[in-house]
């Protein structure tokens, strides 16, 4: 069998193209593609990835017919350029570069100027008329080849240059003459012969095969192997080798080399963005010895010389290339070029990396320019990156002094004075001060302080700790689990790395990086430009999943609507219980030993809850509102300290001992798995009765106010057994009938359940019989499926993710294999008995793009997430819908 | 369509039989059966359960042809007895009794003497020659019919008798004459007419249809409905009605009535056991007005007259009947009979209820007598009841004073002095005192005290609290969660119901009932008779499941072998860490901040652990021993109180503050879902390394000692992700190779995993790739599937079981629908990739018969349970195997 192992490109003979990335690698495929659309690419050829595979399959031997094909490839180059490889007068020089499907660190990269030897260097001097250039090129070649192909330590080369400079009293390389470079070449060759035991190869063919062998050999070196293992890249993908005629940006003042983007990768602005250097080779642009100059004159600062001005012809040609590339690739490109004696050559093009803001602007601009269609624009923007556009961010130019680092728990940046408790945070915020609430960890009692604060810092807990979850929900920047920071409440101070910050001093948090800075750092306010809403509009046109928000305060509900939420998917009623005006009655209820006592206390809470719900119904104006009845165990509402306990006892007219006894009775070994959710509703039916009454009364009230009927969705938490839902549902229905009879009117309503326990998933066909909807509580489901407490996972989960035991934090992105399997099972079982059963999710995962993709595939009806994640979810849902259309 | 609605029995015309229980009810089917095997049954007929169903299906109307069939049935009785229903001279009297498939409280039971009226009563007087008997029978009839058929309050009847006795100055019914009864009948009739607005029915046919209607009507009364709902009895089963010729045990001194068992239901002894009364009707035997006499002379006490002596002919006949019945039914029977004028009549037979001891003896005896085969004997004994045979029990005759009651957490009875802490329990037990350890709840630190105590009492926690689980494992009687008892550690006293018991005073616990008694109560030691081991031997012949024990101490392992365990299924290595000689090193390990420090501390534990394992290997002598590596979170090993903490700090040379800080770092919100199991093994690999080394060194040691190779089974706990098992397995293998190299020898070993998380079940096909066996940890699996903490469930789980939200405590008996579904899934997935994968369970469920049935069906290889449950498990496994053979 005879295979094509070598694919030519350039000079009118393009055997490859962009679609052949697997065979030719990314670089080779794009070189052929550029050449095929008429761009000026120096001619060359690509040795395919299949050669690499064959090489390893056959005990590091090349296919028999490879040599002939490489020779033919060289002939193609020689014919195109008109000079010969190894010719002593007009030598052809080539570059040899690796190029796998994906860019991969650890592999051999590039050897330039290959083909030079003691004879051809003279020919190059002659042909170019520049002996210094020729000898410099030769020494560059020996240095590169010597280190990457022959394995000589690169310090050995530097020593020789430094030695000569010392001898001559030079400080800069530019001071070296042709003669000097000649001497250095001599030194290099002696040193290489000594190090390797063999003279430096003089045969250009031997050089070429040496470089090809080095590329293939580097595919299996330890660093490349490690990288592939970590990134799940199969070893049998192999790498390609690109051999290409050299062009020189360093042959004189009419030469240049540059690296640039077709648009501004930072802002997305439609302007040439990048740098070039006159009379330089590619490595000089990045080496930092000379200062690169801007491409476009518009971007030139005083004293800078843009390429637009310095090389107007080459620049004009490049502008055409840019248009051609963007049109052809329909995306912003990251390109490398060389100008040799005023002639432009393209050496590389690839899709350019960009910031979130640029990504958004480029996608919208390109759609409006007609380069891509709107669905493509929707696909182009990474939803996860949107988050950073919705919050203030630190000014990248601002000075800063790092104090410590924690987990990037909720994005955005905030500055404020350090305050150590929630009450003080609220009091100082009320006086107009910007505060940062600093706690070892937060609890539901701190909610009012978190609301009042500009940002939250905790020293314990993970990405899904109470602080992190609540902060994300509120859109407050949060750095959580900053283990390097010690908080001393007593001393009202925090310490990190030997530095102490006292209460009242200012710090700045960057919730996107987890960094904590001393003092104030300047910020940039978010620009929710027209592009943002344009793209959101396009996303909304293609998505199938509805997006709701998790919200319980009017502020959150407003934010959610502003960001485009289509309802509330989770209103956690317990958050409403911590308000100082209510917590007294809540505690009275908890302390009561009798149902009557509890009913008395609950009757005080009724008007508050009714107003809570009425406010939400008003804001959501007919959009669905799902209200979860009380979920957490009652002890969460009791104070933790003796002195607070005493205060509460006094206010309730109880003695401290009774209070402590009751608190001890309520204490639990594992509150997550304790007396909570519908278990409370079953053992204390009066609690759910009060909440149901508040919901129905509010629904009637707002319906009458607005003339727009409210259809509340009542959600029973933590159901694991169908009878639990039967019983609590019957309670809700009974209260509904009572209220309807009292008011002489009725409202429609739904009663559904959270599916958040494995048993609920396993018996979803039974539970569906009593449920109008399922809402997957993926936080608790993840906890129970993994047997993993969110509050405690911080001790080992980061290690698990770091060591790749888990690919991702399962509280951030749904564990498709485990948790996902149960959700899919529950969805299928539920709909097997109720085909139209409404399904949603309301865990933290509702705002995670990968999880949203899962929800789309599993056929859910909606996701519900923190208000600030709503735009992320809208875009992710659109992409998920597009992906699923594509895959079906 | 014409149906047979009525089935005759007796007098040679038996249309039914024992197999027709669904159609004829239990009573009717057995009457026909007895008659058909030639026993003297008064003739009668049964109206089928289908009539009941038709009655309700047709708006409470009888089938059209029923009346004719009932008339024919009456004719059959009349012909057999030779007297006529309603005949004024020789009237036929009948009884009317209900009889459903299963005996059911709440339904109408019996009307006797039906057919009497103002005329036939005279005929009865005449025919019997006993006017007092006739009028007494008539008044009994009016009273019974009046209350159960006509709904007259039974007090109204008693008032009339009491009034007359008052008038006459009588104290006993026996003082009343025929004349008196006549007057009472008159009073009854007047009262009934007044109450019901209608005269008492004089037509025997009207009486009969009234009684039939009352039986069918009572099938749907509220009490019967409730009972059916609670016991899952479908309403459409219906009840039958039995109409039968009356026979009279109260017609004179040659008459009698009796209720008896064919063997002693308390001991199982093969002797007639029961009571009879001369000249009495059935109700008199149970009413307690006269003292019933024993059946067999052997059972007669001084002053008693046995039936054997008083009525030798009837008794001899009854002995024949007994043999015939036992032979026919192949089981011990509970029978009712009447002797009328020296002639024996059988009125009922049914399978007799019996104690566990009797059940065992009867099953073995009957198998040895050839009445049943051995597998049937194995089926006959309730495995759950065996438990009570293995422990001392309270002498039922002993006097006792109840103090309070808790949950029957671990069977057996124990007396001892009250002690409130584990150390004191150990110290006093060492001095030979019998102690009862009383704690609010227990923790692993109390283990030595629990071991030293005769019994354990806790005031908190459920059937699966720490105290309950550990006590069952040790075979110590335990009363748990006695909420009515207040323990005051400070005052060293407990209080219940106003009574105070101080430390040092004696109490007695009955772990089988949960009762707590003041002082000492006499006990009976268990008799593990030959019958016990005979039955166990038969069980072992038929069972497929292997039975292992959960054991870690030599004592437990010895007990387990004595009870027939075939290996250790779960050795919880952490129990070995609490020993006073070791806990210091354990705490030193925990307090170390460095791996080196931990390794130092662990090296002190190594010799202890090695000897632990060696001891188990020696005792188990080649039987498999599964050792679970460290499972609980490290904070469980730290002391809870400041003073203890200070002690520990001193002994470790650390300061208290450091110790407290480390303890605070280790504290967890939900320890059940925390940093434990293989998560410890991964983050602190040196712990598992030490334990693995101890296992391999011990295995080599004991193998060399005994010449019998030891094949340890190493079990990794809490795996949820396959990589966790990959990593820990690799660690174990590495240590094995190190030890083998050091010792110059190798042992075979297995490395498997607990399957105790939903995620492990869902991904069992992946995990199986790295596991030599799976052992289902059903305790933790139940906790995570339900989201239910064992330690906290006591607050609502009892309520759930009481209210039938859950049929059983899922920690006692596997929740087949939820937990079982995951186990079945894991078994299937595991074996899909490894067909021979060894599967077992090692939770508390391993000793529960219903759970063992599930394990048999799911195809597991073994169950492992507390040593004291091993016999229960052996028997249950045998029954499960028999059931599965039957059902396939």
Rg of chain A to the nearest angstrom?
34 Å
- Termini gap of chain A: 37 Å
Which ranges of chain A are low-confidence, i.e. pLDDT below 50, for 5 or more consecutive residues? none
Structural class based on helices, strands and sheet pairing of chain A: alpha/beta
CATH class of the domain at 543-566 and 756-888 in chain A: Alpha Beta
What is the number of beta strands of chain A?
33
Oligomer: homodimer
Tell the overall outline of chain A.
elongated
- Strand residue content of chain A: 15-25%
* CATH topology group of the domain at 543-566 and 756-888 in chain A: TIM Barrel
Helix proportion of residues of chain A, in percent? 40-55%
Q: Could you tell me which chain pair has the largest interface and how many residues each side has? A: A-B, 46 and 46 residues
The main sheet of chain A comes to: 8 strands, mixed
Counting H and I runs of at least 4 residues, what is the number of helices of chain A? 34
Q: Please, what is the average pLDDT of chain A?
A: 91
Q: Can you identify the CATH superfamily of the domain at 543-566 and 756-888 in chain A? A: Phosphoenolpyruvate-binding domains
Assigned CATH architecture of the domain at 543-566 and 756-888 in chain A: Alpha-Beta Barrel
Family (chains A, B): Belongs to the PEP-utilizing enzyme family.
InterPro entries (chains A, B): ATP_grasp_subdomain_1, PEP-util_enz_mobile_dom, PEP_util_AS, PEP_util_C, PEP_util_CS, Phosphohistidine_dom_sf, PPDK_AMP/ATP-bd, Pyruvate_phosphate_dikinase
EC number (chains A, B): 2.7.9.1
Active site (chains A, B): 466 (tele-phosphohistidine intermediate), 842 (proton donor)
């Amino acid at each position: 069998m005879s295979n094509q192992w070598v694919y030519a490109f350039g000079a009118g003979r393009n055997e490859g193209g962009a679609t052949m990335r697997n065979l030719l690698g990314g670089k080779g495929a794009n070189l052929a593609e550029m050449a095929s659309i008429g761009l000026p690419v120096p001619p060359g050829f690509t040795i395919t990835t299949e050669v690499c595979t064959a090489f390893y399959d056959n005990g590091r031997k090349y296919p028999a017919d490879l040599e002939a094909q490489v020779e033919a490839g060289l002939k193609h180059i020689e014919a195109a350029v008109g000079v010969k490889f190894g010719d002593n007068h007009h030598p052809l020089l080539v570059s040899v570069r690796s190029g796998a499907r994906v860019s991969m660190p650890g592999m051999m990269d590039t050897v330039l100027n290959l083909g030079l030897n003691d004879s051809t260097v003279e020919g190059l001097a002659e042909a170019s008329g520049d002996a210094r250039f020729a000898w410099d090129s030769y020494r560059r070649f020996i240095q590169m080849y010597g280190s990457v192909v022959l394995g000589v330590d690169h310090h050995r080369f530097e020593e020789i240059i430094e030695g000569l400079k010392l001898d001559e009293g030079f400080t800069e390389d530019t001071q070296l003459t042709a003669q000097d470079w000649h001497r250095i070449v001599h030194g290099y060759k002696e040193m290489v012969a000594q190090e390797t035991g063999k003279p430096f190869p003089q045969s250009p063919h031997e050089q070429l095969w040496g470089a090809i062998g080095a590329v293939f050999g580097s595919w299996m070196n330890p660093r490349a192997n490690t990288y592939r293992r970590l990134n799940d890249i199969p070893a049998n993908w192999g790498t390609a080798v690109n051999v290409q005629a050299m062009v020189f940006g360093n042959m004189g003042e009419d030469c240049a080399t540059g690296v640039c983007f077709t648009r501004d990768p930072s802002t997305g602005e439609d302007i040439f963005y990048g740098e070039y250097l006159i009379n330089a080779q590619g490595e000089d642009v990045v080496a930092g010895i000379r200062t690169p100059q801007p491409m476009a004159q518009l971007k030139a600062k005083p004293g800078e010389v843009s390429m637009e001005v310095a090389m107007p012809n080459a620049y004009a040609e490049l502008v055409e290339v840019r248009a051609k590339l963007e049109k052809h690739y329909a995306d912003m490109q990251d390109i490398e070029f060389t100008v040799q004696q005023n002639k432009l050559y393209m050496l590389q093009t690839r899709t350019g990396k960009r910031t979130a803001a640029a990504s958004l602007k480029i996608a919208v601009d390109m759609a409006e320019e007609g380069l891509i269609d709107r669905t493509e624009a929707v696909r182009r923007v990474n939803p996860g990156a949107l988050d950073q556009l919705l919050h203030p961010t630190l000014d990248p130019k601002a000075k800063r002094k790092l104090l410590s680092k924690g987990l990037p728990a909720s994005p955005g940046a905030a500055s404020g004075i350090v305050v150590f408790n929630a009450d003080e945070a609220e009091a100082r915020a009320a006086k107009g001060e910007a505060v940062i609430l600093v706690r070892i960890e937060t609890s539901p009692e701190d909610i009012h302080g978190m609301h009042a604060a500009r940002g939250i810092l905790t020293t314990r807990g993970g990405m899904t700790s109470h602080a992190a979850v609540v902060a994300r929900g509120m859109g407050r920047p949060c750095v959580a689990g900053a283990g390097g920071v010690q908080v001393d409440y007593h001393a009202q101070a925090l310490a990190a790395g030997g530095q102490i910050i006292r209460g009242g001093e200012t710090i700045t948090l960057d919730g996107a990086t987890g960094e904590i800075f001393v003092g104030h750092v300047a910020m940039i306010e978010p620009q929710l430009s027209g592009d943002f809403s344009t793209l959101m509009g396009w996303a909304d046109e293609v998505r199938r999943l509805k997006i709701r928000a998790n919200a319980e305060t009017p502020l959150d509900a407003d934010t959610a609507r502003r960001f485009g939420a289509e309802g509330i998917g989770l209103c956690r009623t317990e958050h409403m219980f911590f308000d100082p005006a209510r917590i007294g009655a809540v505690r009275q209820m908890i302390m009561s030993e009798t149902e009557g006592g509890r009913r008395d206390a609950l009757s005080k809470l009724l008007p508050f809850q009714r107003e809570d719900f009425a406010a939400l119904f008003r804001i959501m104006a007919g959009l669905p509102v799902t209200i979860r009845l009380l979920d957490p165990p009652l002890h969460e509402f009791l104070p933790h300290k003796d002195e607070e306990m005493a205060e509460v006892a006094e206010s309730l007219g109880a003695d401290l001992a009774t209070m402590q006894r009751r608190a001890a009775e309520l204490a639990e070994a594992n509150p997550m798995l304790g007396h909570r959710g519908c278990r409370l509703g079953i053992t204390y039916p009066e609690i759910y009765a009060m909440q149901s009454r508040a919901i129905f009364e509010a629904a009637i009230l707002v319906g009458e106010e607005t003339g727009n009927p409210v259809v509340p969705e009542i959600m029973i938490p933590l159901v694991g057994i169908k009878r639990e839902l039967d019983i609590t549902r019957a309670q809700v229905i009974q209260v509904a009938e009572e209220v309807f009879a009292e008011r002489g009117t009725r409202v429609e309503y739904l009663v559904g359940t959270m599916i958040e326990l494995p048993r609920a998933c396993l018996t979803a066909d039974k539970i569906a019989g009593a449920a109008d909807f399922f809402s997957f509580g993926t936080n608790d489901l993840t906890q129970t499926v993994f047997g993993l407490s969110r509050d405690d996972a911080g001790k080992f989960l980061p290690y698990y993710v770091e060591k790749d035991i888990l690919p991702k934090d399962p509280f951030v992105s749904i564990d498709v294999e485990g948790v996902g399997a149960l959700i899919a099972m529950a969805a299928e079982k539920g709909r097997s008995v109720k085909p139209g059963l409404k399904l949603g999710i309301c865990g933290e995962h509702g705002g995670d793009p990968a999880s949203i993709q899962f929800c789309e595939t599993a056929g859910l009806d909606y996701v519900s997430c923190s208000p600030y994640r709503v735009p992320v979810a809208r875009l992710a849902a659109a992409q998920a819908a597009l992906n699923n259309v594509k895959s079906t």
